[in-house]
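User: Okay, second chain of the day. Same drill as before: sequence in, structure tokens out.
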Amino acid sequence: MVSFLLIVGFALGQVQAGGGAEYDFAAVESRELWIRHPVWGEPSFDAFERLPGNPVHRGSAPYLWPVNGFFFEDPPSGDWYLYVGNYLEGYRIETEHRSMCTAFRSTDRGGHWEGLGPVLAHQGHIYEGESSPVSGAPDVSVVYDQGLYHMCFDWSSENTTWENAANPDEHCNSGVGYAVADRPQGPFRPTGRPIATTRAQKPLLGKYRRLYASSLIRRAGDWLVLTLTDSGPYFGWALAGMTSPEAPGPYTEPVLLLYPESDTYHPPLLEFFPAFVHGEKVYMPATSVAMNRNFVCLFSAPVEEAHRPEAWRLEQHGSMWHAQSVEHEAYGLWGQAFSGSVDREGFLHVLFPTRDVEGKGAINLARRRWDCPFREQGFTVSAHNGPTLVRTALGGVVEALRLSASRTGTVAVMWDVRGPMGADAPRSDASLHPSVRAGRRFLELSGNAWRIAYSDDAGTESAVASGALEGPSGSSDVELRWTGEECAFRLGENTLWQGPLVRGKGALGLYLEPFSHAEVRAFSVHGSLQEVPVTLLYTEALLGAAQGWVHWEPAKSATFRYGEGARSNPGAPSPFVKWNFKGKGCSLWAPSGPEFGKAAVFLNGSQEAILDFHASEEAKSKVVFTRNCPEKVYQWLVIKPLDGGIIPVDCLEVF
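Assistant: Same drill. Structure tokens below.
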């Protein structure tokens, strides 16, 4: 780990002598000044602390990926149980080694752990109406009620493959099951009928069919199952709910509760599992399934109303989780969101799965006070499989830029960030679009080397200066300070470089190469800053509506603002796109041409305009729709083609 210190900042927005103001973007009060996103990344201000002894469990052959799990505190004994979902590497399915759940127990609140082995007695179990026995059953949740331990679990039959998992024939199936035991370590005995099956499930919204990772909730008068479901090539994940007066069932038909196509703000690529109850609410963490997976949201609903979609709300948008720079968290959060339980002392204890430096899964523990979700000062930002770019909502003319942090890998401090933001494709494992690297200036620190460079609007990089960070790698004092058009780059009391350097007026931020990490204590900027717009690419609209490329195709043309966009397929069944954003308003950009037709535009659920993209000749992209609102809020803009026509999707400028 390399530490570097850029002079500590002052209070956020404090006006200084000589004009301008001092902003510390690492102050907890500044967290809303950062743009957070499931693909791009985020600076997380969360206050989670790791428990000693991590990892509790690490993958070994053949089950190299223990990457799901459920944390359970046994009410009668107070013992802790970890129910771990064990997979083959890459979620591979093999007949000989099917996924399974094993348990671990601690009688001293995490001090020591005892492996209990498999807990679900499903071998050879054949559900009524099925011809193939249950084979894989990795993901579970457990509830204690009236002296019994009730388990909800996902399962697949012996003949299930990834090719038929979403569309099973009469010889295979999957779904959600129920089992019961007299002890938390089991054996849990499955019932004759499952809670739900994929084969019997009519696709919700025409695409959500496969039912898997599920949470069981005991309510005053019934039982609630919260089930994760996916949409295959659409790359959307949704949470569905089912209820029953009895734990084994029968349960009602699944109803979608949280899903990207809903008429509300909803970050894309979020996978739900598992839920936990605290007080009168049920909480559902949801983690990104992009290339980097540390972005986590927390949704909530009153327990007794949680079967109703309108009862759910976004409780916390990001700053829920951070990765540490340790070998067993090399790939960050992996497999699912954390599994939580709030104890009597007010601590939220969580199981969290990761992958280590060799790619093997690991099960770990952390905690924070429930009523103190954020640290007092500082944030963590990391990149794992792919790069991370986080930027502020503010920008302008910078007089000085200073940072206090510890880092591993390659970290760049950016200013004058003007490029668009977006994913490289509308899919899982999405990463940064190449265009996001355009239009920025930066100071890069990598090992004991530094360089100052910039990239133009086409993304071509040019070096300004470079050199070595002299002295011990453990600490260094660094500062960029402008006097007129001249900038001085200092290491401690020594000036390493001085010369002309453009300041610009764009946003500020941090860029991390893959497998890099920064613990930021202070990120202070002196200058004249104000809100600056950010442009969201077409991929954000496809992700936001969980469209994939099913009814769309990529389009490269100079008529699009950044040279590429998307176009709908003619006659496609009800395609639409949806940008989710936070801002005071937006401007929609789009080209026009002979092949295009009309579309309806909706902002926050209200139809605002009918746009006609048709023209006798191709015309370059321009602003075709603008709306303002009095305050900065979470919003969503939807475009729906009319009469089966073809429409272009370009970009959305948010301000």
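The CA atoms of residues 154 and 212 lie 5 Å apart.

User: Thanks, on to the next one.
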